[in-house]
Amino acid sequence: MKNRLFVCFIAVFGLLYVLGCTRPAAVVDGKKIDMKTFDILLKEKMQEHKAQNIIPDMKQMKNAVIQELIAERLMLEEAEKLGIKISDEDMNMRIDMMKKDAGEDAFYNALREKGVSYDDFRERTKDKMAILRFMSGLVNESSITEEEIESFYKNSPVPFIKPKRVLMKIIEFPTEESAGAIVNEMKDKNIKFDVMAKKLENDPRVLTATEYGWVNPELFSSDIAQAVRNLKPGQSGGPYKGKKSFFLIKVNEIEKEGVAKIDDVRNSIRRTLFEQKKKAAVTQWVEQRKKTSKIQINIR
């Protein structure tokens, strides 16, 4: 999912630099949106529809794409007027997160496939961050009231589900061999999991030995998720393969899936309402700004 979001990010925000089209897709207050950018984003949208087995209305899709790019240009222009600036440090942190999420090789492969240079991608990342900061400034999250949250919870057409979660303790190892050696030591010397975890807290053989807290087991690798599903409270097992390391796990408590109370989902509802208000505010702002902007569209 993260990789897909990364590729979409490049398609939408990473291609405005492309030059060479004599006839722009649109001109917004004297600034061009080139046809190559439009074509690439249109192709991306078509692929999304194809993946969902949806046959789009091409006229409507073309209009949606050019309107999205126009809105982008207007918000970036306003961000510049408001003095919204993104530091190189913040930009680099964001890009480093993308590399980590996608994987270094996948990150650069995606850039090459889209024909985007790294320097241009950095500039487009900075533009995107400025736009997002401008959008966030249109609505204050503190404007979400408790009454709105309670109403959203009570009037939801389907109940909020609290997923199964477990209270775990883990010991993480760099290799399967090092994990196996500790398992053998625990068996040979009849050492309990908690005692061994305490003993290994500062041991160079392990990456970490700690209380992991409450967590949904489905968030782990398939091996760990399956193992945790099979463990009962008080039981331990391993080593289990994670993304880059190996784990010994003890399950202390289990909470079954059930209907969530409002306190369990209050923050989630707050974020949902905030995003809804922000989206509405952005739409309203863009429509108002279009009325006072000089916009020429060359898409038919």
Written account of the structure:
With 300 residues, this protein is α+β, with helices and mostly antiparallel strands. The protein folds into 2 domains: 2-140 and 279-297, Triger factor/SurA peptide-binding fold (Orthogonal Bundle); 164-256, Chitinase A, domain 3 (Roll), CATH 3.10.50.40. The protein contains 11 helices and 9 strands. It has helices spanning 2-13, 35-51, 58-81, 88-102, 104-114, 118-136, 146-154, 176-189, 193-199, 222-230, 262-291; strands at 26-28, 31-33, 161-162, 165-173, 208-215, 236-241, 246-255, 258-259, 295-297. Strands 5-4-7-6 form a 4-stranded antiparallel β-sheet. Strands 2-1-9 form a 3-stranded antiparallel β-sheet. A two-stranded antiparallel ribbon has the order 3-8. A hairpin with a 4-residue loop joins strand 6 and strand 7. Helix 7 (146-154) crosses helix 11. The longest helix has 30 residues, at 262-291. It is elongated and about 80 Å long. 21% of the residues are buried. Residues 12-21 have low confidence and may be disordered.
Cα(first) to Cα(last) distance is 33 Å
Mean pLDDT: 89
Q: How much is the radius of gyration in Å?
A: 25 Å
Overall shape: elongated
Structurally, the number of domains stands at: 2
- CATH fold topology of the largest domain: Triger factor/SurA peptide-binding fold
CATH homology-level superfamily of the largest domain? Porin chaperone SurA, peptide-binding domain
Tally of strands: 9
Proportion of beta-strand residues: 15-25%
- In the CATH classification, which architecture of the largest domain applies? Orthogonal Bundle
Give the spatial strand order of the biggest sheet. 5-4-7-6
CATH class of the largest domain: Mainly Alpha
Q: Describe the main β-sheet briefly.
A: 4 strands, antiparallel
Helicity range: 55-70%
Helix/strand structural class: alpha+beta
Uncertain segments are 12-21
Order of helices and strands: HEEHHHHHHEEHHEHEEEHE
Number of helices: 11
